[in-house]
Design a protein that fits this description.
The protein is an alpha/beta fold and 355 residues long. It folds into two domains: 182 residues, Phosphoglycerate mutase-like (Rossmann fold, 3-Layer(aba) Sandwich), CATH 3.40.50; 159 residues, 3-Layer(aba) Sandwich (Aminopeptidase). Helices cover 34% and strands 24% of the residues. An eight-stranded mixed sheet has the order 8-9-10-11-12-13-15-14, with helices on both faces. A five-stranded mixed sheet has the order 4-3-6-1-7, with helices on both faces. GO terms for molecular function: protein N-terminal-serine acetyltransferase activity; protein-N-terminal-alanine acetyltransferase activity. Pfam families: Acetyltransf_3, His_Phos_1. One of its GO terms (cellular component) is cytoplasm.
């Protein structure tokens, strides 16, 4: 099953011309924008388009109305195609948002969304398109964040990389989307200081040194693994799921700005991906820098964008540093203890799927 998506950005708005980041505000096409919308229609009306899917924000709707009025091609508005919600900064100067954008890949804008949440909504839309429009060619009219999400989900381009490239208009982008693209995990998670890269068996050689300090095991038990044992463990984890298939194993190597491995984060997803247990470890030389909190917050945001409704972690009651990490990531203590560790829980509500 596959569908061809032709992506076109909405036409130029008065905010674009004034250097304003519209976000979730409606926006209005400028005179130049209206002319370009008509050109879009001339370009796509006879391009084999079976249907048009547009953001429900006014500037995108106007673009579709001008481009396809009287064409007979059905136009569907979809809230999942909205621009990222900048929250308190909807309508702020573009320069201000551009300077802060990379900080909100995983962490939502104050009062708004993260870009990872846009990815989750885009994935959900793609799932519907693949199921309902198999073999068809459809047009999507949306915003920058949606194109970055498509590049990530279909092309594997990290969000941070897409954001760093200056916008260069072109007459559409084409993607062929399959069911496998919709199911595939997007890979790297980035923060302002860290990159979380999917764990591979080959990471064991570097991680053996990171995990070599016996003090790391004071609260979680065990001892530093041998290189052979770590290679075997990572080979199992890299499979991505338990032998019975009832657990999804999601593991990342945490790397600093220099690309050096400093620790790991992991999530074990169950109940069809609705619940996940997370854990983290940062090597002793890199502790005290806030890396564990930064990585855990990013992981929780990523899980929420994928539809995980409940995030759990077990923390020893005397491990105060890990308690602080859990609380900062939005998990709250419960009265339940398992094997001497307190259960911390975050129930993801509307903040994980803003729309």
């Amino acid at each position: 099953m596959a569908v061809t998506i032709v992506y076109e950005t909405h036409s130029i708005t008065t905010d674009n011309e004034a250097g304003i980041a519209t976000g979730w505000l409606p926006g209005e096409l400028s005179a130049r924008g209206r002319a370009l919308a008509a050109e879009l229609g001339a370009r796509r009306r006879d391009d084999g388009i079976a249907a048009v899917f547009t953001s429900d924000l006014r500037r995108a709707v106007q673009t579709a109305e001008i481009a396809f009025a009287g064409s007979g091609i059905p136009v569907f508005q979809d809230v999942r195609l909205r621009e990222c919600d900048y929250g308190d900064l909807n309508g702020a100067p573009v320069e201000r948002l551009a300077a802060e954008r990379s900080l909100h890949i995983e962490i939502p804008w104050p009062g708004g969304q993260s870009y990872r949440q846009v990815v989750g909504l885009t994935r959900d839309l793609l799932r519907d398109l693949v199921a309902a429009w198999d073999g068809a060619r459809v047009l999507v009219i949306a915003h920058s964040a949606n194109r970055w999400a498509l590049d990530l989900l279909i092309g594997g381009v990290a969000l941070g990389e897409s954001m760093a490239v200056p916008f260069d208009w072109q007459a559409g982008w084409e993607y062929v989307v399959s069911a496998a693209d919709v199911r595939r995990a997007e890979g790297r998670i980035t923060t302002s200081r860290l990159e979380l890269s999917p764990l591979t068996a080959g990471d064991a050689d570097e991680m053996a040194g990171v995990l070599a300090d016996p003090a790391l095991y004071a609260f979680i038990g065990g001892r530093p693994p041998s290189l052979d044992a770590l290679r075997a463990r990572y080979a199992r984890l890299a499979a991505g799921h338990s032998p019975t298939g009832d657990q999804e194993w999601l593991n990342w190597i945490v790397r600093d700005g220099g690309g050096h491995a400093v620790g790991t984060v992991q999530a074990t997803a169950v109940d069809g991906g609705r619940r996940a247990e997370i854990a983290w470890v940062i090597g002793a030389p890199w502790q005290g820098r806030g890396y564990a909190s930064e990585a855990a917050e990013a992981l929780v945001g990523w899980l929420g964008a994928r539809g995980v409704r409940r995030v759990e972690a077990h923390v020893h009651p005397d491990h105060h540093a890990s308690i602080a990490v859990a609380v900062r990531a939005g998990l709250r203590p419960t009265g339940r203890f398992d094997d001497g560790e307190r259960l911390y829980v975050r129930e993801n509500g509307a903040e994980s799927h803003v729309i």
